[in-house]
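To the wet lab folks,

You asked to see what we're planning to order before we commit. Fair enough. Below is the target structure as tokens, and below that is the sequence we designed to fit it. If anything looks off to you, flag it before the synthesis order goes out.
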């Protein structure tokens, strides 16, 4: 995923004016165009969203799938980093507004595609860490693995899983996500 050649750095105020039907992210004011996800990507997203949604019925945390704007540092219209994670969980609902999430979500899940792997695992990884996202999952459909990054003392501690694992969601006490059959179409 390459940065687009725009003539300056942008903010969320600029971002919301773009109505060309493309999806973009801003990382430190630089614009990145997002590609359409594959069928397997969407199947994985749907399964994870189903499990999280079912667990959260009647609870105060909320879950949202992409496209859903996350202004990572809570700077409102002046924000220069706006991402659209595949799935976000927000427990501090005061961060939610009609535009999305204004501040770091509690949990982010990114599902890799060949075109976005570097963007999700390097650029966005550092932004999630810097913003204080407590739990960051990277799902790799090609390798059929999930890497769970848990924020501890300002750094991510990582654990890797593969099917048929059951993974505890640290930010949601009692929540476990099953990977069984998630990677097959």
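Sequence we intend to order:
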């Amino acid at each position: 995923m390459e940065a687009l050649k725009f003539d300056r750095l942008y903010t969320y105020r600029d971002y919301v004016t773009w109505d060309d039907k493309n999806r973009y992210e801003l990382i430190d004011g630089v614009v990145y165009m997002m590609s359409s996800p594959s069928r397997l990507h969407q199947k994985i997203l749907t399964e994870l969203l189903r499990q999280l949604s079912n667990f959260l019925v009647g609870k105060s945390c909320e879950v949202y799938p992409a496209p859903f704007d996350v202004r990572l540092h809570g700077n409102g219209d002046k924000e220069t980093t706006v991402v659209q994670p595949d799935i976000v969980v927000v427990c501090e609902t005061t961060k939610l507004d009609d535009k999305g999430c204004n501040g770091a979500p509690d949990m982010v899940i990114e599902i890799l595609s060949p075109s976005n792997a570097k963007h999700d695992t390097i650029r966005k990884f550092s932004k999630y860490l810097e913003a204080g996202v407590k739990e960051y999952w990277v799902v790799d459909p090609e390798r059929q693995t999930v890497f769970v990054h848990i924020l501890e003392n300002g750094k991510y501690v990582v654990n890797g899983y593969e099917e048929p694992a059951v993974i505890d969601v640290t930010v949601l006490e009692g929540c476990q996500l099953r990977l069984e059959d998630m990677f097959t179409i």
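Structural context that might help your review: Residues 78 and 156 are 27 Å apart (CA to CA). Residues 37-66+83-178 form a domain with the tt1808, chain A fold (CATH 3.90.1570.10).

Thanks,
Computational group
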